[in-house]
Amino acid sequence: MQGRLSAWLVKHGLVHRSLGFDYQGIETLQIKPEDWHSIAVILYVYGYNYLRSQCAYDVAPGGLLASVYHLTRIEYGVDQTEEVCIKVFAPRSNPRIPSVFWIWKSADFQERESYDMLGICYDTHPRLKRILMPESWIGWPLRKDYIAPNFYEIQDAH
C-alpha cells in the first residue's frame, strides 16, 4: 500500500521502498544509505522541517542495523501536521549512514547516541563521539550480539 509521500517520490523518480503504515497511520519508508542524504534534503525542501526523533535498533543478531527518523511537516495555520517515518538499514560489518545534522540540527545528540550504543557511523557529523559511555568503552552495548565485559552470571545460586 502506497501513501501520499511515497507516490510523490515515485512521481519524481526517487528510489525508496514503502513499508506501509504504523498503528497511527503514519507512512513508513525505507531509504538506502547511499540515497539518504539527497532524499533528506528533498524532504526538508518539501516541507518536513522538524525532526521529531531519531533512534536506532539492531534488527536481528548478526543482521542489519536500522536508523529511524520521524519527520514532521509543520506549517503556520495548519492544525493537522503531516508525519513520515524513514528507516535506513546498514550492514553490521560497516554501518555507515550520512548524517542529517546539517539539515536538522536536532539530530546532533540523537545520532551520537545511536553511534554510542550501536556503532552506526554518521558520515559528516561534526562531533561523532561517545555521549553516554566512556571513551574507553569497547563495543556497542545495544547490539544483540554484545557480550558485557566482566559479566558473570551466577548459576544455581541456592
Automatic annotation (TrEMBL):
Which GO MF term does the entry hold, naming one?
Answer: quinone binding
A Pfam cross-reference name:
Complex1_30kDa
Q: What class of enzyme is it?
A: translocase
Q: Which PROSITE patterns match?
A: COMPLEX1_30K
Q: Which InterPro entries match?
A: NADH_DH_suC, NADH_quin_OxRdtase_su_C/D-like, NADH_UbQ_OxRdtase_30kDa_su, NADH_UbQ_OxRdtase_CS
Q: Which GO terms describe its cellular component?
A: chloroplast thylakoid membrane; mitochondrial inner membrane
State which Enzyme Commission number(s) the record gives: 7.1.1.-
Main localization of the protein?
mitochondrion
Q: How does it assemble?
A: NDH is composed of at least 16 different subunits, 5 of which are encoded in the nucleus.
Q: What does this protein do?
A: Core subunit of the mitochondrial membrane respiratory chain NADH dehydrogenase (Complex I) that is believed to belong to the minimal assembly required for catalysis. Complex I functions in the transfer of electrons from NADH to the respiratory chain. The immediate electron acceptor for the enzyme is believed to be ubiquinone.
Please state which protein family the record places this protein in: Belongs to the complex I 30 kDa subunit family.
Q: What is this protein called?
A: NAD(P)H-quinone oxidoreductase subunit J, chloroplastic
Tell me the name of the encoding gene.
Answer: ndhJ
